[in-house]
Amino acid sequence: MKKPVQWLKRLFNFDSIKGGLIYSFTLLIATVILLSSLMSYQYIVYYYQKVSTSYAIQLLQTVNANIDVYISSIKSMAQLVVRNTDVNSLMSLYQIPGELTPFQKEREARLKANVADLLTTMVNTQKNVTNVAILSAGGAGDLRGPR
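Below the sequence we write its predicted structure tokens.
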């Protein structure tokens, strides 16, 4: 145990020029390594924060764009239903008070079939829509697409 300690004392003998130079250069090299390590660490932290912030912003912009496309798609589907003549005719048919005549019942069945075809087409063309329904104010004209 004494031999390594004695060897270190002899190596770092501050009384000699050799020991002073070794100690000075060791301290200088250790300081340079420490400072360069700290600077590298700070740069890496800054770089990764900048990159992660950039990626987060890109991700949020992509998600917002996808949500906007989805909402506009749903709005256009709703407009398609609202402007459809068969849907409007069927809803106006339900506004007639009292029982429907046989002609009106036949027309209702034909309009329901057309509207059901429209809803089925909407569900089949939109991958993110699984069910579509048209509800009248009184509940008499409830139509649903495929489930």
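The chain is about 75% helix and 5% strand.
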